[in-house]
Specification:
Arc Repressor Mutant, subunit A, globular, HD_assoc_2, four-stranded mixed β-sheet, about 450 residues, HD/PDEase_dom, alpha+beta, three-stranded antiparallel β-sheet, dGTPase activity
Length: about 450
């Protein structure tokens, strides 16, 4: 009789683990996740948000297994192991410290290569982890086990009421799309996916982008960057550290890193002097800001800080990812993207845009002494931004050809594969900033996406 262990989970209740899963849970790579907070420094706003990447990983493993059991020709056990390991490359405080090119996916791959498994090789696990096929889509796809777990778990631990999703019904609605080797949902699951979209949108400003969380996470990010630049530790060391290691190292350092972590310890946070909302910025200004490199942003912060003789941090979040909107829905034996048939999904994309904002933070001691900043806060930043032209191959193609019909044609003109994730990321950023428009055109019972540039460099 195989040995089983039952973990009691507040979200999924009893989660059963077999011998190999237990042995993987007990590895240092997974145990390290016990001391990495799932939601960064959100606990400074929601005191009970102390849940970890460890419990999220076990929850993701459980959900991935439940989905896999309902699908044909899926290796359920392999899928569960990959789901269990999907976050082992995270730095302390999770996504907060993905700085200077740090990629938790790359460090996850490197860790898996060095691990020993009973029934699978590291190569087999990595093939699924990196796959865009069915097993990989279960863990990091349009609607995946990762997202299903963290929304409900984060809602539970923060105490907000926005993350409620009918996970069992959503699991039952997931199907394999014939001839595409991808996952989609049946028509009966459409409303459940829409509830997931709504929950995620509501959690976005309430939890993930809460102003106090953003300030504290910007502070610890800058403390960490200063520590790396001061050679206190290396960027790659973050893949072995947990929250406790990092906090201890910063507390025992000297200079700026130590000062900032002391402020966080005492909750003596920087103050927000101005908020630049999506509608306050031109498309070019949005593009310039979201494409600032870490070094350029640091140089800009230094210039502004020296000019005003106080320390200033810029908080420029990445554009929100909205991958759930593109999941395939099967209706009347036809395939549609969710945002083609769901007015709610389409409207939420615009709502996400409008909820994006960047913030400028100032040391609390000088907050009340800076009337010149507060008086015209939404303009002073751009005195320091160089007026450089936008150089982008997608924009160049669209400016040359006018409206381009279909993403495949556009990718060919840009000389990129239609499946290239970097091409799609760049295109989505252009659309997000308002430099490119995307129009959905019905064509013979399906839909085509037409793209047009609305920006030319004068």
């Amino acid at each position: 009789m195989p040995k089983l262990k039952i973990i009691r989970d507040p979200i999924h209740k009893d989660i059963k683990l077999n011998e190999e899963e237990i042995s993987i849970v007990d590895t240092p790579e997974v145990q390290r996740l016990r001391n990495i907070k799932q939601t960064g420094l959100t606990c400074l706003v929601y005191p009970s948000a102390n849940h970890s990447r460890f419990e999220h990983s076990i929850g993701t493993m459980h959900v991935a297994g439940e989905i896999a059991k309902n699908l044909e020709n899926i290796d359920t056990e392999l899928t569960k192991i990959v789901a269990l390991l999907h976050d082992i490359g995270h730095s302390p405080f999770s996504h907060t410290l993905e700085v200077e090119g740090y990629s938790h996916e790359e460090f996850t791959r490197e860790k898996i290569k060095k691990m020993d498994f009973t029934n699978y090789s590291p190569k087999e696990i990595l093939e699924v982890y990196s796959s865009k096929g069915i097993e990989g889509s279960l863990i990091h796809g349009d609607v995946d086990a990762d997202r299903m777990d963290y929304l409900v778990r984060d809602s539970h631990h923060t105490g907000v009421a926005y993350g409620t999703i009918d996970i069992p019904r959503l699991i039952r609605s997931i199907v394999i799309i014939e001839d595409s080797n991808k996952l989609g949902i049946s028509e009966k699951g459409r409303n459940t996916v829409e509830s997931l979209l709504t929950a995620r949108y509501q959690m976005y400003p309430t939890v993930y982008m809460h102003p106090a969380s953003r300030i504290s996470e910007t502070m610890i990010k800058n403390a960490t960057l200063d520590a790396i630049h001061d050679k206190i530790f290396k960027l790659e060391d973050l893949s072995e550290m947990d929250d406790i290691d990092l906090i201890s190292t910063l507390r025992n350092s000297e200079g700026t890193p130590k000062e900032i972590i002391k402020r966080i310890d005492k909750r003596k946070l920087f103050k927000n002097i101005t908020t630049l909302r999506y509608s306050d910025l031109s498309p070019k200004e949005r593009w310039t800001l979201i494409n600032l490199s870490e070094s350029s942003k640091h140089r800009l912060e230094t210039e502004i800080s020296e000019f005003y003789e106080t320390r200033i941090f810029l908080d420029i979040p990445k554009p929100p990812k909205m991958v759930e909107h593109r999941i395939t829905v099967l209706m009347d034996d036809k395939k549609y993207r969710l945002d083609e048939i769901s007015p709610l999904a389409e409207s939420l994309k615009n709502a996400y845009k409008k909820s994006w904002s960047m913030m400028i933070y100032l040391e609390s001691e000088t907050f009340n002494k800076m009337p010149e900043l507060l008086k015209d806060g939404n303009k002073f930043l751009f005195k320091f931004i160089e007026n450089t032209p936008i150089k982008n191959p997608i924009l160049d193609v669209l400016n040359e050809h006018g409206t381009v019909q279909g993403v495949t044609k556009l990718s060919n003109l840009v000389k990129k594969s239609a499946n290239d994730p970097e091409f799609h990321l760049e295109l989505q950023k252009l659309i997000f900033c308002g430099l490119v428009t995307k129009k959905i055109e019905p064509v013979r019972g399906t839909f085509r996406y037409d793209y047009k540039s609305i920006y030319t460099e004068s």
